[in-house]
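Write out the bound-state structure for zinc ion.
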Amino acid sequence: MSITPITGQDTLQKFIFDNAAVRGEFIDISATWREVLSRHAYPAPVKKLLGEMVAAAALLSANLKFNGSIIMQIHGDGPVRLLVVECDAELHLRATAKIDPEAVIADDAKLPALLNAHGKGRFIITLDPADKMPGQQPYQGIVPLDGDDVGTVIENYMLRSEQLDTKLWLAADDNVSRGLLLQKLPYNGGKTEAAPLTEDEALETWNRAVILGSTLKEEELLSTTIDVLMQRLFWEETIRVFDPLHPAFHCTCTREKVGNMLKMLGRAEVDSVLEEQGHVGVNCDFCGQHYDYDKVDCAQLFATDAPVEALISAGEVKH
Ligand SMILES: [Zn+2]
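---
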């Protein structure tokens, strides 16, 4: 368990157009992203996709009035089997990818070839409340993978599932993960009482914001700080800026959760690994932390009657 130190602190900057027609968020989550990458070796095209998802998950998470975790997943049917990012209400975040070990991934491979080779890719968003009522299930939205890049997939999901006009510009490489989110706010007659906006004017503000956002090129997003980008894109707009938030890397794995996962695997499976290896070793898929269980530990796991918690993915047993 570790949280990124203050040095190289990440920033999420929320803002709102002063006439309240559009809200936005800029994020630079590069330090958190480098923490993710320091634990895994992924091919460049996978880094790009997962890095963009890391930025997007934090952007969506900061936008939700929801105390819990957002889990964003793409289940792939190509060489990449799974991309997953979990982000909680404090913007503590972890991410991992599962890749077919046999796969050869071209340097210029894009999302459709990597994750939707047979049209069976799925985009899944799970909202897992922090304080669940007994028996309460997390909310889950599952849609076909509609879009050729991470931003478009999420935009389409937001429009279809949440009826929210959302635009995302995302970029990630070995070092940097940055993004911009713009969202059209529901028309409420305009915020300023003295001079309320007409619906057409509100729509005009949205269209103008999207045009400004669309001038943002991937290279520019990778090479420019968000303060400069904010100024460059929206200098002619009246914008209210909120206190910055600070996302950070944080893995939620614990020995207890890994123990629960072993209990779900079942005694027979655990016993067979014990017999073969003399102990059971589990590496966390997200942070790489190693957990080891000897015969006594395993006997204790199955001796207690504590309920087994449902887990998203704590890791896999090493054979
Ligand atoms: Zn972990």
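---
Residues 11-249 form a domain with the Hsp33 domain fold (CATH 3.55.30.10).
Residues 309-314 have pLDDT under 50 and may be disordered.
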